[in-house]
Amino acid sequence: MSQSPSRRRPRRPTVAFIAAIVVLSIAALYSALAVASTSKRVVSEGHNPSLGKTVLIANNGLTLYSLSAEKNGRFICKGSCLKDWHPLVVAAGVKPVGPVSLGVIKRPDNGLREVTFEGKPLYTFDGDKKKGDANGEGIKDVGTWHAATP
User: Whole-angstrom Cα distance, residue 137 to residue 51?
Assistant: First the structure.
């Protein structure tokens, strides 16, 4: 008995089609992993005995500071200021994470992506040499420097 021309057998997937599905699935998995790896922990918190309060700390253990006059995208610490105050930066595509909500802002002087907390850029101080130092607390210039507190 022969089949009528209007009835066709269902086609089986070809090897090339199955291979394409596998390749696309692997690519989607790697893409998802790449997105997940763009987050980086750059801030922790700890009790600072000299200040008597909990402060934000960079990965190197140094106290993080913000300048009172730097808010709403306004940068004061530029040029010679950067010899003493070092911006906490992350690479393009990296989302900074920590025990608090962090953001990034592009520095107008060099284009680096500086980490922010509550909208204020974060810095370490050149005068802090070891974990627990908070020698930048209260320094006044065009604003006042304070340890960032959660």
Answer: 9
Please give the tally of structural domains in the chain.
Answer: 1
| Cα torsion angle, 109, 111, 115, 116, sign | positive
CA 138 to each of CA 5, 61, 114, 148: distance values in angstroms, whole numbers, following the listed order: 89, 20, 22, 12
Report, as an integer, the average pLDDT of 97-118. 95
Q: Is 10 contained in some domain?
A: no
Residue 8 counted as domain residue: no
Single pTM value for the model:
0.75
Distance CA 146, CA 136 (A): 7
- Does 17 map to a domain? no
Q: What is the mean pLDDT of the chain?
A: 87
- Backbone φ and ψ of 116, nearest 5°: -125, 155
Residue at 13 is within a domain: no
Angle subtended at Cα 60 by Cα 144 and Cα 112, rounded to the nearest 5 degrees: 65
**Which of 83, 92, 130 has its CA nearest to residue 111?**
92
Residue 131 has pLDDT above 60, yes or no: yes
| Residue-range definition of the domain harbouring residue 92 | 39-147
The model's confidence at residue 36, banded by pLDDT at 50, 70 and 90, is very low
